[in-house]
Design brief:
48% helix; alpha/beta; eight-stranded mixed sheet
C-alpha cells in the first residue's frame, strides 16, 4: 500500500472520475485507476496513471480510494469482491446517494475495517481542480483533516459538515433537487418561447434577470419560514394561484407540454384547499413537508392538466 500523502486510487472513470484522476495527476499524485471498461483509462494511463487489473488490486494499491460510480449499488458490486483488501482504507465516496444509503455504506465499510468519508461534489466535471469549486463532506473529522490536501486537489473548497455520513449526501440532494427543478423550469420556458417564435438566445437576458432575482427571495423568506410566519402581507397564495393558472394556460394555448406547469398548479390548488389562500405562498413549505396524495389509479398524468378546449381536468 502506498502512502496517502502522494498516491490515490480512483475507481470509476465516467466524466467525473476521469476529471478527478486528471486533476490529481496534474498535481503530482501517483494515481491508480480501475474501470469496468478498461479503455476509458487509456488517456490517463498515457499521462502516467497505473491501470489496476481488478478492483481488489486498485484498493490494495493505496490508502485513499476515491469512488465515483453511478450509485451505491454499483459501489457494493465493485467492492464486495475486493472486501479482503478494504482494511485500513479510506473510502472517499463521491457517488450520489440518499442519506440513508450513505449511512448504510459507511456501516458496511466499517465492517471490513475501512472508513468512509461521504462527499457531495457541487461541480460538473469541468469544475474539478478549480479553486472556486466545492464539495460537501461528512464523516470522521480526523480523516477529513488528515486527507485535506487530496480533497482540495479535487475541488478548491472542501467543507466538513459533521460526523454523520449521511449529512453530506443530504446537502448534496438539497442542491441537486433545486438544480433539476430549476433547469426544468428553464426548459419549459424555452419550449414556450420557441412555440411563440423566440429563440433560447432571445429569451436568455430575461432568464438571467429572473435567475439573478432569486437570492433576494431566498433571503427574504428564510427567516420567516424558520419562524413559522406565513402572513400574506407581501404576497398571497390566491394571487399566486391566478398567476400559475395563467402560466399553465399560456403553455396549453401554445401547444406546449403542460405536465410541469400542471404539477405547479396542482400544488397551489392543494394549498388553497388547505385554507392558505390568504397566506403567503411560502405556506406551501408546510404542505410539502407532509405526504401528498397518491397519483390517481387510471391516469396519474392528467391531474391539473388542460383539455383541448382550455378547461381544467380535475
Amino acid at each position: 500500500m502506498n502512502s496517502a500523502q502522494n498516491s490515490v486510487t480512483v475507481i470509476g472513470l465516467g466524466p467525473m472520475g476521469q476529471a478527478m484522476a486528471a486533476a490529481l495527476l496534474d498535481r503530482g499524485y501517483a494515481v491508480t485507476v480501475w474501470n469496468r471498461t478498461a479503455s476509458r483509462a487509456d488517456d490517463l494511463v498515457a499521462r502516467g496513471a497505473a491501470l489496476a487489473p481488478s478492483p481488489a488490486d486498485a484498493v490494495a494499491a493505496n490508502e485513499v480510494v476515491i469512488l465515483s460510480l453511478t450509485d451505491y449499488a454499483a459501489v457494493r458490486a465493485v467492492l464486495e469482491p475486493a472486501a479482503p483488501a478494504l482494511g485500513g482504507r479510506v473510502l472517499l465516496n463521491l457517488t450520489s446517494a440518499t442519506p440513508e444509503e450513505a449511512r448504510a455504506g459507511a456501516h458496511w465499510a466499517a465492517g471490513y475495517g475501512a472508513v468512509q468519508l461521504t462527499g457531495g461534489v457541487n461541480s460538473p466535471p469541468s469544475g474539478i481542480g478549480q479553486p472556486e469549486s466545492s464539495t460537501f463532506y461528512s464523516g470522521p473529522r480526523e480523516v477529513f483533516d488528515r486527507h485535506r490536501a487530496v480533497l482540495e486537489a479535487l475541488t478548491g473548497r472542501a467543507e466538513h459538515h459533521g460526523e454523520d455520513p449521511g449529512r453530506a449526501a443530504l446537502l448534496y440532494q438539497l442542491g441537486v433537487g433545486m438544480f433539476w427543478t430549476a433547469m426544468l423550469g428553464y426548459w419549459q420556458a424555452v419550449a414556450l418561447a420557441r412555440a411563440n417564435g423566440l429563440t433560447a438566445a432571445d429569451f436568455l437576458p430575461h432568464a438571467d434577470d429572473t435567475a439573478n432575482s432569486l437570492p433576494q427571495f431566498f433571503a427574504f423568506y428564510a427567516d420567516r419560514i424558520d419562524a413559522g410566519v406565513h402572513v400574506g402581507d407581501v404576497d398571497r397564495l390566491a394571487m399566486g394561484m391566478a398567476s400559475v393558472e395563467h402560466v399553465l394556460q399560456t403553455n396549453a394555448d401554445a401547444g406546449v407540454d403542460t405536465a410541469l406547469p400542471a404539477a405547479v398548479v396542482d400544488l397551489f390548488r392543494r394549498g388553497m384547499e388547505a385554507g392558505h389562500g390568504a397566506d403567503s405562498f411560502s405556506a406551501l413549505v408546510e404542505l410539502l413537508a407532509k405526504p401528498g396524495p397518491p397519483p390517481g389509479p387510471t391516469d396519474p398524468g392528467t391531474e391539473g392538466r388542460v383539455r383541448q378546449d382550455g378547461s381544467f381536468l380535475r
